[in-house]
Specification:
Strands 1, 2, 3, 4 and 5 form a 5-stranded antiparallel sheet that branches. A 5-stranded mixed beta barrel has the order 9-10-12-13-14. The protein folds into 3 domains: about 90 residues, no CATH class; about 60 residues, Antifreeze-like/N-acetylneuraminic acid synthase C-terminal domain (Type Iii Antifreeze Protein Isoform Hplc 12), CATH 3.90.1210; about 55 residues, SH3 type barrels, CATH 2.30.30. The protein has 2 helices and 14 strands, in the order ααββββββββββββββ. It starts with a helix and ends with a strand. The chain is of the alpha+beta class. This is Flagella basal body P-ring formation protein FlgA. Its main location: periplasm. One of its GO terms (cellular component) is periplasmic space. It is found in: Periplasm.
């Protein structure tokens, strides 16, 4: 080896050794997971607290300038979860880190027993506070989401209310005289009819016309049914 090349190799040897021995800091992994979960839960109604699990100090991962966090398909960003962190360069690796995400916020519960099919009144509701991450995703967080709706089942006092078990207040009821309306570019047609069933706003309902024909349309407030022709 030429003297100049030998000298250069001697100078670069310590740098190469340092680069080879550089390892990913556990603190950086924890920060990556924490920031990722903070972003994922930014829209949740409540105060979010992220607790990242311990990382095995014996695990040696090559240093990564841009670690990327991700969730496995079907995983949630709240409650007890697992976040993946991967590196694509200079040395590819993937590691999975456990975390717990708590969401302290308000939710709506029944203050008195609620009967199936009966419209829910504000006096029958109470606002409570707890970890929303431990409750169903469809939990009601505002009384306005519940008032006037009916439950598919009887509910005991103290039970959190789930929106997926509640029916919206009907805007069209069976036997009600309604107005069938259809509109388009430059025209609007209307006719009278009688609702064959109950329907909330936006739901499909059948209407019997004076001629005995059944027509399906979208129920709207004010006794209107929108029909597409």
């Amino acid at each position: 080896m030429k003297p100049a090349l030998f000298a250069l190799a001697v100078l670069l040897a310590p740098v190469a050794a340092v680069a080879q021995s550089a390892a990913m800091e556990p603190a950086v992994l924890r920060q990556t997971v924490d920031q990722f979960l903070q972003v994922q839960t930014a829209g949740l109604p409540g105060k979010v607290t992220v607790a990242v699990g311990n990382i095995d100090q014996r695990m040696k991962l090559a240093a990564c300038p841009a670690p990327e966090a991700f969730l496995m398909p079907g995983s949630k960003a709240w409650g007890k979860t697992t976040v993946g962190v991967r590196c694509t360069a200079p040395s590819p690796w993937t590691v999975y880190i456990q975390a717990t995400v708590s969401v302290l916020g308000n939710y709506i519960a029944a203050s008195t027993p609620l009967s199936q099919g009966q419209p829910i009144l504000e006096t029958q509701l109470v606002t409570m506070q707890g970890d929303l991450a431990t409750l169903p995703a469809s939990i009601a967080t505002d009384k306005a989401q519940v008032i006037g709706r009916t439950s598919n089942v009887s509910i005991s006092a103290g039970t959190p209310l789930r929106l997926d078990t509640l029916r919206s207040k009907p805007v069209v009821q069976m036997g009600q005289q309604v107005k069938l309306v259809s509109s388009g570019a430059g025209f609007r047609v209307s006719a009278e009819g009688k609702a064959v069933g109950n329907a909330a706003d936006g739901q499909v309902v059948q209407v019997r016309t004076p001629g005995g024909q059944n027509v399906s349309g979208i129920a709207r407030a004010g006794g209107l049914v929108e029909v597409a022709f």
